[in-house]
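user: Please supply your own:

assistant:
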Amino acid sequence: MRILKMRASFGKLHGELALQEGMNLLTLPNEEGKSTWSAFLLAMLYGIETRERSSASNGGLPAKDRYRPWNGEPMEGSIELEWKGKYITIERSSTPKAPMSVFRAFDTKSGRTIEVLTGENCGRILCGVERSVFERTAFIRQMGISISGDSALEKRLGAMVSTGEESAKSAQQLEKELQGLKNRLSGRAGKITKLQTELTETERLHSYVTKLREDMEAMEGRRKELEEETDRLEALLQRIDRAKDARGQIALQDLEKKLREQESLCINLEQLTGKLPTEATLHKLNKRLEAVGDALETAKIEAAFAPPLSTGPTPPPCFKDMTPEQAGSKVKEDLARYEALSSAKLPKKNTVLGLSLLLLFGAVILSVLSYLDKVPGLPFPLCLGLAIGSLLLFGVLVLILNYGSKKVYKGYLEAKEILENYGVESISRISELLEDYEEEHRAYEQQLSEESQRSRLLREQMMREQEKANRLMEEIRAFDPDAKNVEDGKRTVSEALEALECLSTERRVLEQQRGQYDRMKELFGKGEHPMDYEALNMDEEKLRYEYREARKKLADLSEKLSEQRGRMEASGNIHGLDEHKDTLRRELASAKKELQSIELAAEVLHAADDRVRSRFSPRITAEAGKLLSRLTRGKYPSVQLSPEMQLSVRDGVLQRPAAAMSCGTVDQMYLALRLAMCHLLLPKSAPLILDDALVNFDDDRCAAALELLKEEAENRQVILFSCRSL
């Protein structure tokens, strides 16, 4: 994952921040939003915890109130990023009751919603870890550089050295539950304490009443009974000792039987794993499967996200259902027709009619003059005929001119209809419409060709990745013919690794059982005693107490006889006390047995937790030691990590805790630890955010830290906010 740009309306922030791939060193003075930008990025990835309340840890101000925009606008923002070769935008906005709760993720180029990302799983998918793990590894604040315990972090550390399963409860959670059960039984107000108090009081009263009664019956008889009781108790105690030895011999036999069963189990596991590749080979296959699976998934996603082929341009209504060639032919014909219609002109009607009228008027005058004999030599009939001919000529000319006008007007209407068909007012716009349509069609054909080429390349890439996956699956089918696809291959390799790990674990258990058997054989392997279950069920502590009390009573009996006579009258019912005492003893024995089971479970859980921690602690401390050595220029070459996530370093021959070191050295120790945990727990796609984490470093160690961070930036995006010029 690579963050490209952040836009925020968050606290004092109201603007954008552009980032680049690799190392981003952002030097800003105090109160310019370094911590706020860091908190904004965390809120965009994982949201804001709306249930957070005021506490000492947050300075009495929850995040939903701390980062309320100063300008009064709603809390919102967006991040543009690159993830698996795709450009994605994630947006968060607020409702009146839930800030930053409205989430949307979409493809930056197409705007298509990405369904796989939600407000709840966004940070876990993009960064590969839960919020608590991310905050304790890759999110480093100036005042929060140290690491505290966390159940999610504990699960991930445990998963690092086991099968990778993180769904089970952590040891911390189980220990808390067991402690709660134990407190309810053995706490100050627990069930056992109450029963013991009541039983002690009942036994005291019972002994008191019994003593009074027995003393009142007969002093000498009581003395004899006490002596017999002492002998009996002593015999019972000896019997208990012999029963303990017999129980040890039975336990030895049971352990021997378990040892044989464990040996048989190891033999069966060896037979089952005999045809499997070595663990190193399986790990290599697993890495190759991860790489091939990711590449194939990326190719499928790219093919799925490819935009559909573009549709053709929408032609103008005048060219509907026409190709550019057909539209060109139509325009050519219409232009020629429009030119022909436009060239027709009206005849000069006024001139022709004027001449004809003038001729008619002259003929009429000549006819009148001829009729009056004013013009000699010009006969009247000729003049009259000339007048009649002029009148006929005028009528014919009127008819001819009227027909020509109608023909020209019809041509004008047809030319106007041509312009209306194209929706233009000028004949020159018709050619421009044709040119625009032809240009759009040429651009569409070019775009269609490019999109077809891109689609073909995506299909070819997906086929190449599928071929790689098929070749790798052939190797896996050598020891699992049923494996059909990459997911089957991953499961097969995981099961094979689990089988080898199970064999290694069972072998260690076998060695432990052998050692335990040898030790018990030294203790109980000599002599034989019959098993006496009745003796084992006896209360040894009670018997020893009664033995001492019997001897004491025997000595005090004579002195207290006179006092007991008066008290005998006020004594209670001994039968009711017996029944109540037996009931209390049964309840107390049951509660103690339950307490023993809980304590045993806690011991087993603690031992298992120690084994897990002993497996992941060396890997983390080894990596952190290398980084701390570079940060301190070799002064502290190693570091130790306690189960409580506390660090210490060796200074010469002394082991010094982090609390004994300077602030700068402590920050360097925990920076090394966080970087080591990033290497081992986080995917390379998760970014590393540091908010003034180097503020306590001197110049030399600051330079060393920058070298480490630049190397880290070769694999993941690093965002370092600082108030100093580094």
